[in-house]
Inverse folding.
């Protein structure tokens, strides 16, 4: 069993050394410039007219009616990929078939198709509508007559094996803000007939079925769509660690540092923004198609406490490094957080401080292990040198930089721990153990939080699951703990997550090294001497 133990410590003070650290800004996706000129060439068809303002291309056949449009070439300068739209939404459509030279689009039962352009970050940057005239006479007993009445534009393309993972939520996350608007009957942007209808798309030997909409002057009816969805048994994740199914939830675990905005599920050929849960349709082993919630997440490096990792910071290293100025020496015989690799165990011990000219004052500092950085390098960063017999407190939180980059949305955290409580005499800052997880937005607001505090001993190992409350700080901002002085308040809970703050502390308030004087060492301690927090198996739950 790998364990981590923190303890409060008693010590003297020495020279104060000032340090600082700054958190870097979270990088954002740059804005990409995409040309507004769609380049389209179709076998047997020519461009009749072009409505740049509304992004509509009207095409006609030079050889009479043709059953299909075959793409010779298609490009939007600056765009990384082009797709057929899978619904009628001209602002934020779901993605259908990927368009490549040779793709065949049936014209049998529709007179339009929407083309969606993505940039290199898979954001929607434009939606174009290609419109043609229906034939004057029915092509078969099942075909409707052409209509001259206008209706809402856009085709309704069902999801297929290359695009079933896309829906309105995921495409909205990918696009940010979409450019362009569609023409409709109210704007009068086109004199062409634009009836709602269906389209069938073929690329090579594959095809995707499309919903058939009724046209004007015909009875209201629609063809039954034939969804072509990915089977659950074939689903996998590129560069991911694992994928698991629980009920209607698919959990995709990615390594820490992975870009959750560009997760590729195979055999899908598109990337998905999984910084938030996304609903997708998949087929089970019995052939039933159902909607599943796809959730991506990461675990924090070193969170099993098997090894020290740079993701985590501790004040203990500085406490264990002596500092000497003139005749005053400040040092700790032992750190209050020690990793022993031979037993893969982390544990804490009581530290002591002495000076050559006698005791000046006693100080108490807690054991802190947290996500972030500590810029202090020796004991002088923890214990302030002073000749004041009362022993002024030294707030070493000024050297603690909190937070690490993070983009997932866990629902809870789980921790296994036990705690040895030792009382202190400070009523304002009573001894207690502290564990918290806080998700923070790019503008430094709390997105979600969960906290554990203990004011009495927990003698046996216990596992506890704590829900993360989105849009709540659980009282952390006003509690007087370290890690929150730079935050701008509590958000709504709907903000994107930019960083995570995690704290384990044997003495919640003892980030200020405090105490009495040389004669009364426990007069003002903000922590309980020899209090200990044992930790094991920390995990985020999604």
């Amino acid at each position: 069993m790998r364990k981590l133990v923190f303890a409060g410590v008693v010590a003297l003070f020495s020279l104060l050394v000032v340090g600082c650290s700054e958190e870097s800004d979270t990088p954002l996706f740059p804005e990409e410039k995409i040309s507004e000129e769609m380049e389209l060439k179709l076998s047997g068809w020519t461009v009749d007219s072009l409505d740049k303002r509304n992004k509509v291309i009207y095409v006609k056949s030079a050889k009479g009616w043709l059953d299909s449009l075959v793409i010779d070439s298609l490009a939007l300068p600056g765009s990384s990929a082009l797709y057929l739209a899978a619904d009628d939404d001209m602002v934020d459509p779901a993605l259908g078939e990927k368009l490549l030279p040779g793709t065949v689009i049936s014209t049998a039962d529709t007179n339009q198709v929407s083309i969606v352009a993505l940039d290199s970050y898979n954001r929607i940057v434009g939606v174009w509508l290609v419109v043609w005239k229906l034939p004057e006479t029915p092509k078969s007993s099942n075909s409707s007559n052409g209509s001259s009445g206008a209706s809402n534009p856009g085709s309704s393309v069902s999801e297929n094996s290359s695009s079933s993972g896309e829906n309105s939520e995921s495409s909205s996350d990918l696009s940010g803000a979409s450019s362009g608007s569609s023409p409709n009957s109210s704007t009068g942007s086109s004199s062409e007939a634009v009836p709602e209808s269906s389209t069938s798309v073929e690329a090579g030997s594959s095809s995707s079925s499309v919903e058939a909409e009724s046209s004007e002057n015909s009875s209201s009816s629609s063809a039954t769509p034939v969804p072509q969805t990915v089977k659950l048994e074939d689903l996998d994740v590129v560069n991911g660690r694992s994928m698991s199914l629980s009920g209607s939830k698919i959990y995709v675990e990615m390594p820490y540092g992975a870009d959750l905005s560009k997760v590729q599920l195979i055999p899908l050929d598109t990337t998905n923004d999984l910084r938030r849960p996304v609903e997708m349709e998949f087929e089970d082993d019995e052939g039933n198609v159902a909607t599943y919630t796809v959730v991506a997440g990461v675990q924090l490096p070193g969170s099993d406490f098997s090894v020290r990792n740079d993701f985590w910071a501790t004040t203990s290293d500085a406490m264990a490094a002596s500092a000497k100025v003139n005749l005053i020496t400040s040092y700790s015989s032992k750190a209050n957080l020690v990793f022993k690799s031979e037993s893969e165990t982390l544990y804490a011990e009581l530290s002591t401080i002495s000076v050559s000219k006698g005791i000046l004052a006693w100080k108490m500092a807690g054991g802190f292990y947290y996500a972030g950085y500590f810029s202090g390098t020796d004991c002088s960063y923890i214990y302030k040198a002073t000749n004041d017999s009362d022993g002024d407190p030294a707030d070493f939180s000024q050297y603690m930089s909190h937070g690490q980059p993070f983009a997932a949305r866990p629902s809870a955290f789980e921790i296994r721990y036990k705690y040895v409580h030792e009382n202190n005499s400070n009523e304002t800052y009573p001894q207690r153990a502290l564990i918290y997880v806080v998700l923070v937005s790019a503008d430094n607001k709390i997105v979600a939080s969960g906290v554990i505090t203990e004011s009495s001993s927990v003698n046996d190992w216990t596992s506890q699951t704590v829900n993360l409350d989105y849009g709540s700080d659980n009282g952390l901002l006003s509690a007087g703990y370290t890690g929150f002085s730079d935050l701008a308040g509590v958000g709504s809970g709907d903000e994107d997550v930019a960083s995570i703050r995690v704290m384990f502390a044997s003495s919640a308030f003892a980030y200020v090294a405090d105490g009495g004087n040389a004669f009364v060492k426990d007069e003002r301690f903000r922590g309980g001497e020899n209090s200990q927090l044992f930790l094991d198996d920390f995990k985020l739950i999604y």
